[in-house]
Amino acid sequence: MKLQDELPVDRRLAQVYRIGAGLGGVFLLVFGILGLAGHPGFLSTEGDHVAGLSTNGALAVLSVVMGLVLVGGAVVGGNFASNLNMIVGLLFVLSGFYGLTVLGRPDANILNFRMSNVLFAFIFGFVVLTFGMYGRVSSHLPLDNPYWQKRHREEQPMPSGPPAFVKVMKPGPPNPIGH
User: Fold this and answer.
1) Mean pLDDT for the chain?
2) How many Cβ atoms are within 10 Å of 132's Cβ, its own excluded?
């Protein structure tokens, strides 16, 4: 049994997953290609800036690879794109923490991260993560959502009709008369 077989399919949500993966992937591809066009050193800790973010050869290649992965997820679509968006979003959030730990340490900052890169990693990670979780994780999913239906398959449906008034009894011993 595969995880993909267990997840419900919703065609409307698949478009959201594809759009998120596609837009994120295209942005990373453009950033990576522009970073490589400047001929930076592969592990240079000083160098080029593209779209307000510092880059080097390693970060540019990593951006191109992640961009291709996200564009591939957009092509496949469905639950695969949703899962991929969540994984890539989490990786970007973790890379933001990596960037925080290596700021000001040129010997360890092999991806040439600056504070703008850290902020971008957190924001981009949470946006892609949100695209992946959209319609899957919420406390207020509509009743026709396949993920809600999957989680509540065994529950009995609520009766329809006019609302009924229920008398709420106060628990505990009865109060004596007059008090």
Assistant:
1) 76
2) 26
